[in-house]
Amino acid sequence: MGELLQLLREASEHELFGIRGVYSSVDTKRAVDALVEKAAGSGFNLLIWFVNPRRGPEGVTASYRTEFFPCGQACEEDLLAYLIEKAREAGLKVWAWFGFMGYKSLLEKHRDWAAVWPDGRSTLERPCSPGGERFYVMNPAHPEVVDFWRRALVDLVARYSVDGVNFEDDFGYGYCGEWFSYDELNRRRFTRFLEERGITDLEWPSDAVEGGRYYSYWIEYKCEVVAEVACELVKAVKSVKPGLEVSLATEVSRERNRRVHGIDWVELGRREVFDCFTFMAYTADDRTLEHWVKGVFEELRGSKTKPVMIIGWELRGHPAVDWVRQALIVRRLGGDDLIVFWDGGLDSSGAWGYMGKLFETMKRGQRV
User: Fold this and answer.
1) Which residues contact 90 (CB under 8 A, 6 or more apart)?
2) CB within 8 A of 99, min separation 6: which ones?
3) How far is Cα 70 from Cα 68, in angstroms, rounded to an integer?
């Protein structure tokens, strides 16, 4: 308890985090009840809930009423409506955590929507499988894919009184350690992209893969496509509910994110597309966390897009005090908000109560 007391003394000198969020993908009403009780009792004020998690034989299963994704038990029970009701009763806000992954029967119906591996096979023919799962990645350069995402998002926010939507980073250019999409549509668009820069000798796809002659241009191209898609989707969501907070979950490394996912959060920050970025600062090493937080805040200095740090994934099973210490690192370096990934990690570390003590101390300014 000695380290905790010391940390709480420091905590009493800091303002309370504005956003105090926790991610979850629980899939029963009983689990929702437990989540709401633990979150509210520990001082959290926001639940970020995965509405279309990557699970089940289709690769995706909806946890809310929708015609856009396969419906499982949570969908049939309309678990999102139940979660919102219980969260409101407890004074908590709810963000819908939305993923852009396709699913098997969708791609069987629309085969040209699938992302394509460099060898020409689609992700319907060969789903990416990081651990036995089967993920059906879609092509973000396909207008019909973007329209599918747009309609699904509009339907979601029109049906449910969520307070925000948190976009997953799975737009289709990189996932589960592999990169896509080397299809004919991307080839034509990338060819035009290069021609605008005076390059006319593209060899496809060898020039666009890592180590290829025009790989750096391919990264720029991917970022341009994703930025266009993001702008369209955020605009669609805001057209339905202008006051909704729309955020993007993203990696802390700008360069890795550009290379893999085609997400340049600095450029998106300049465009003021999102209200905030939620940065996946997943590490158990405090020095690494400090380095990441400082780097993100410096890169986004002056941006109207708010950076929100997410901690916790690599802290699962660690002593509960580690969660408090990392939360204070974020606050000490200027982080006004904090999100924890995820409720299961807090469970495995017994950290709910510790986070509650942290928030209570910061809120009341009590000296320990």
Assistant:
1) 36, 37, 39, 40
2) 50, 52, 53, 54, 60, 168, 170
3) 7
Is residue 214 within 8 A of residue 202, CB to CB? The reply is yes
Closest to 74 in 3D by CA, of 59, 55, 97, 89: 55
Residue 269 is part of which domain span?
A: 2-364
Count structural domains, the chain: 1
Residues 6+ apart with CB under 8 A from 216: none
CB neighbour list of residue 230: distance below 8 Å, 6 or more residues apart: 167, 171, 248, 268, 273, 274
| Nearest residue to 141 via CA among 203, 188, 211, 204 | 188
At 74 the three-state DSSP class reads helix
Tens digits of per-residue pLDDT, 98-148? Answer: 999 999 999 999 999 999 999 999 999 999 988 788 999 999 999 999 999
Q: Which residues contact 120 (CB under 8 A, 6 or more apart)?
A: 182
Burial 82-92 (b: 16+ CB within 10 A, else e): bbbebbeeeeb
Q: Which helix (H) or strand (E) holds 178?
A: strand 178-179
What is the phi/psi pair of residue 111, to 5°? -65, -30
Nearest CA to 316 out of 346, 290, 279, 280 is that of 346
Distance of CA 216 to the CA centre of its chain: 25
Q: pLDDT tens-digit profile of 188-207?
A: 999 999 999 999 999 999 99
User: Which residue is associated with the tokens 């329209």?
Assistant: 147
Taking the C-alpha atoms of residue 41 and residue 146, their distance in angstroms, rounded to an integer, is 40
CB-based contacts of 293, cutoff 8 Å, min separation 6: 281, 309, 329, 330, 333, 335
CATH number of 196's domain? 3.20.20.80
CA 238 to chain centre: 18
Residue 71: which residues within 8 A CB-CB, separation 6 or more? Answer: 61, 62, 65
Q: What is the largest CA-CA distance in the chain?
A: 68
pTM across the whole model: 0.95
Q: What is the 3-state secondary structure (H, E, C) of 35-56?
A: HHHHHHHCCCCEEEEECCCCCC
H-helix or E-strand containing 87? helix 79-89
